[in-house]
Structures are given as structure tokens and as C-alpha cells.
Amino acid sequence: MTTPTPPTSTERGNEPELPLHTPSAASLSVAVLIALIAWLAFAAQTDITIGRLAARGYGVFDALERMSSYLTNLTVLLCAISFTCVALRPPTPIGRFFRTPTVVTAIVVYMVFVGIAYNVLLRHLWTLSGYRALVNESLHTVLPVLSALYWLLFVPRFHLTWRRALLWLVYPLAYIVMTMLRGSLSDFYPYPFIDVLELGYTRVLINETLLVGAFVALMAVFAAINHRRPPRPREPAAARDMRQDAR
Predict the structure, then answer these.
(1) What would the pLDDT profile of 56-83 be if each residue is shown by its tens digit?
(2) How many domains does the chain fold into?
(3) Is residue 210 part of a domain?
(4) Quick one: DSSP state of residue 127?
(5) What residue intervals traverse the membrane (predicted)?
(6) Would you call 134 exposed, middle or buried from its count of C-beta atoms within 10 A (0-12, 13-18, 19+)?
(7) The pTM is what?
(8) Domain around 101
């Protein structure tokens, strides 16, 4: 991660929310599209999972528990929530949190990582068709690409500290820890490269270390692009006052 240039007075202040105070029709349209695809794909995957496990004699709660085992499903849910907040701009603390550039960027990094990991490590394991193929491509290709496109086009430069960047690691590390704990209790591991029963703990630990390293490298790419962007223009005082009054 390169050494950042000194932040402007605007960058040192409160982090802007997305979309900015004068959002373009394009930025809102893309945010709506991403949120819509994310919710529909998540709902469709939920339906598929419930139906598949019901055929094996499991209940709805078993299916929901199984869904929460997959990083893709959790990340798509985060993506749906974040871009819904960007599109609708709810004036609530949680709504403002999910549309700050730091949080949106972190979720986009998670989404892109999911897409890369699936297409590099998992795509060759099975062949899907029809409805399931459409849902699968929406989760692992369409959403990562659209999220990255939105970030490149509409997320302004923001002041990224080492502390903020390191906080991005909480989500993937927490997922790894929880997956290992759940696997030790249930003997279910959602991905073959972290299957302790097949590979053993040593090999799984190496694989997880490589995955975290790849994630850090992806973080560095986004941080470098953010660093090289021109500083965002100062918001006019009148517009800033009107936006604060609206809260």
C-alpha cells in the first residue's frame, strides 16, 4: 500500500455518504440494479437450497443454516443491504454506515474476491444449466463485475488509513474461524480447499493462509487505485448545510 498524500481538509472531515450530494442518474441507476440483482439472486439461492435440502429430509432452518455456511451467500447479502442503502439513502445511522465509501469499498472488495475465488477454484467442479446456472452466474460473475464497475465510476477518493484497511480483514478472518468451528462440530466444510476431513488441518491452514494473502493483495489494488484518484472537490457550503439539515 503506497504512502498516501496528505488529505485535504474535506477528506479529513466526515467521510461522505454515497451517492454524493448531487448524485447522477447513472450512479443511482447502477446502485438500484446491483441491489435488485443481489436481492433476487439471494432469494433464488435460498429457494434452491431449501428445495434441495427438503428433498433430503431437512427442514427450513437446516437450509438457512447451510446457506450461512457459504461466503458467497453472506457477501451477497451484505452487497444487497449496502447498495439498497446507497440507492434509497435512508437517514438512519445504519443506512449512513452502509453507504460510506470505506464500507462500500470493503463490500466491493469482498464481492470481487468471491467472484475471483469461484471462477479460479470452483467453477470446474460442476456444470449447471438453466435456472440454477443463471442464479450461479448472477452470484459469482454479474454482481462482482457490476460492483467493481460502480466503485470505479462512482465512489470518490477517500482518506484510507492502515487502521481502516486492516478492519476490512475482520470479515474474512471471522468467516474462517466460524467455518472451522462449525466444521469441527458438524463435519461439514462448504468448500473443498478447507475440508479438514479430506485434507487435514495442516493443508487447510496453508490454503487459508494463501487465501488471506490473496485477499490482502486485492485490498492493496483497491487502495492503490483510491490513492491515485484526484481529490474530490469541496462540497459547496450551501449544499452541505442543506444536506445536514435534511438529517
Answers:
(1) 988 989 899 999 999 999 999 999 999 9
(2) 1
(3) yes
(4) -
(5) 28-50, 70-88, 100-121, 165-185, 205-225
(6) middle
(7) 0.84
(8) 16-231
